[in-house]
Design a protein that fits this description.
By secondary structure, the chain is an alpha/beta fold. The chain is built from 14 helices and 20 strands. 32% of the residues lie in helices and 22% in strands.
Length: 462
């Protein structure tokens, strides 16, 4: 995994001023040659960059912030705007020499670190050559920890299924455990079939070396009992209800929930906050083969509830159900599931704003506010009780894919909640895990979603 880095504090650096637009034009910082900037057409527009000349070449730069969002509290149209400067500035060390009062310097610096990320496993890819000196007054170690968690999640999602099967996902968990002194247990084979029958059923058609398993990662030390459960479908053909080829192109990202919980665990461990943390990942490949589970089958879950299979492409909730039931047996104070689960969530909120579900109003408010305040937006949706009947078929306790096409994200969340009973507080995140088009600090490809919202909300929940 590539390590995020700031420029050394001792590095010779050039100044970068962050310039907002006021009512009458740019709000010029003191000591800047505004004549040159004006002659260059610099107006402080969002993302605008002006390089300032000096005796040795470029002496500094101005970066436009645009107008403040109105009304107050409205999210900006671009997260991590300063990341544009990271991509465009000349090589060398840069320091933020001035910014408007109240500007979030930690978020600006984090966006710069996010812009440094490159996925270089299969071809060379140099990161931007401009490096930032960490601004004074921000928690450098925390920013590096958050960036490291994001890098890990992106790396795992970006890796194709040929190199990121269930065994590879297990190895990623073992590597994380080795870095931070955690313990890993893995349930596979006959023990999986006996103790986690739905995980075994979904993954049993996979080829040699790609057998299903449950990965159980535990961190030592004191801390609140928090369990993170991440969907680890390393590739999803849809099973016998096979997807069209176009729908399979991004299915390497169907383990994005697992990638996100591992990324969050990496961040918590680097911050010294992983004591009491447990991570459960049901890792499978949903393949087509002679042993595929079938539409119309009835599976018996770890919890004892029976599930009628109306669509083998609704497999994520099946493997999560067994993992959630197992996690709930320990009665954690908080249990969180993260999964690239439903297309309905994308239809409702798009790729950039993942929904989450939580019955506890105080916890839900803490999660929403943390996401808003730390540029990791999420949106609460309801466990809508009247839809419970939609997941109750005629011949089994539950239906994995209710017909009708309505409220798909909600019915999936209601299904999962049945298996999370026993946890103190339960929250479910239906993430996309993918950035479909490049944006500042967020290159096209695998993406973390909800990690920082959970990270910053945890002290207020448990």
């Amino acid at each position: 995994m590539t390590e995020p880095e700031f420029a050394p504090q001792s590095a010779r650096s050039r100044p970068l001023w962050l310039v907002p637009q006021g009512e009458d034009g740019p709000v010029w910082p003191e000591g800047v040659d505004r004549g040159f900037a004006e002659a260059s057409g610099f107006a402080g527009k969002a993302g605008q960059l002006c390089l300032l000349p000096g005796e040795g070449g470029v002496a500094g730069a101005l970066f436009g912030l645009g107008r403040a969002a109105e009304p107050a509290g409205r999210p900006p149209r671009e997260r991590f705007a300063l990341a544009r400067a990271a991509e465009a500035l000349p090589a060398g060390a840069w320091r933020i020499a001035g910014a408007p009062q109240g500007h979030d310097m930690a978020q600006a610096a984090l966006g710069w670190l996010f812009a440094q990320y490159r996925f270089a496993r299969y071809k060379a890819a140099e990161p931007p050559a401009a490096r930032l000196v960490c601004p004074e007054g921000v928690d450098r170690a925390a920013l590096l920890a958050m960036a490291a968690g994001e890098y890990l999640a992106r790396d795992l999602i970006n890796t194709p299924a040929s190199d990121m099967g269930p065994a590879d996902l297990e190895q990623a968990a073992r590597d994380l455990a080795a870095r931070h002194g955690a313990a890993v247990d893995v349930v596979a084979g006959s023990a999986l079939a006996q103790g986690f029958p739905m995980i075994a059923a979904v993954g049993r058609a996979a080829g040699p070396g790609r057998a299903p398993r449950l990965i159980d990662l535990r961190f030592r030390g004191e801390g609140p009992a928090v369990t993170l459960v991440g969907k680890g479908v390393c590739f999803d053909t849809g099973g016998l209800d096979i997807k069209p080829s176009a729908s399979m192109l991004l299915m390497k990202k169907d383990m994005g929930g697992a990638a996100n919980v591992l990324g969050l665990a990496e961040t918590l461990a680097r911050m010294g906050r992983a004591g009491g943390l447990r991570v459960l990942i049901p890792a499978v490949e949903n393949s087509v083969g002679p042993d595929s589970f079938r539409p119309g089958d009835v599976l018996t879950s770890r919890k004892g509830l029976t599930v009628e299979i109306n669509n083998t492409d609704a497999e994520g909730r099946l493997i999560l159900a067994d993992a959630l039931a197992y996690g709930a047996e320990a009665r954690p104070a908080l249990m969180v599931s993260m999964a690239t689960l439903t297309g309905a969530a994308r239809v409702a909120l798009g790729p950039d704003l993942p929904p989450f579900f939580c019955d506890d109003d105080a916890a839900a408010e803490a999660l929403f506010r943390a996401g808003r305040d730390h540029a990791d937006p999420i949106w609460r949706m309801p466990f809508w009780e009247p839809y419970e009947a939609m997941i109750e078929p005629a011949i089994a306790d539950l239906d994995n894919a209710p017909s009708g096409g309505f409220a798909g994200a909600i019915t999936a969340a209601l299904f999962l909640r049945r298996f999370a009973a026993g946890a103190g507080i339960y929250a479910h995140f239906d993430i996309y895990g993918w950035q479909p088009a490049a944006a500042p600090g967020r290159p096209k490809g695998g993406a973390g979603q909800g990690m920082r919202a959970i990270l910053h909300a945890l002290p207020r929940i448990v």
